[in-house]
Prior knowledge:
Elements: H1 2-24, H2 38-74, H3 83-103, H4 110-135, H5 140-196
Helix pairs in contact: 1-2, 1-3, 1-5, 2-5, 3-5, 4-5
Amino acid sequence: MTRKSLGLISVILVVVLGLGALIAVPAVRADTTAPVSAADKAIADAKLATLKALGQQIREAAKAVQEKVKAAKAAGIDLSAFRADIAKALKGGQHLRIDFKRMQKPQLTDAERVQLKAIEVRVIELKKQLKAKIDAKAPQAEIEVLKAQLKAVIAEREALVKAFRAGARAHFLARLDNLIDDARKELTFLQGLLGRLP
């Protein structure tokens, strides 16, 4: 029981430490990085507060279970009927640790990578063309046309990066919701076990 409870609590603590970095990491690199919005931060803070509160309740419930188990053993009561539940709880804790490790590394899909690469190629090519026009002292009208095209493509790239970043944050928050749900299940399990223990 101790290992199971500590496993979940350690996940909660890692969320506390890693939240700031995860919520701010963009999905892809860009010339400019938009800051996390106040709304995003407020949502993340609320979820984190919920998770921290659940962690405290889990610690208290786990301690109560441990004390009850200790008292039952001291009284010579057989607790072998609860071994299956304890094993199931340990397996659940391992799943949570693996799940969080994966959610720390949001990756672009193959389609997103291809899309971003295509835009980067267009940006590089337009910059080369613009430099060549300027070096050749081409008419200003031609230079302005290329500048406008470059500006439009860069705006398209930044919009794409923003969408990828928003997707990564939404994915992180959704996974955090899943972790909260798992914590609630863990708490329910501990409370139920506490009630069933002799």
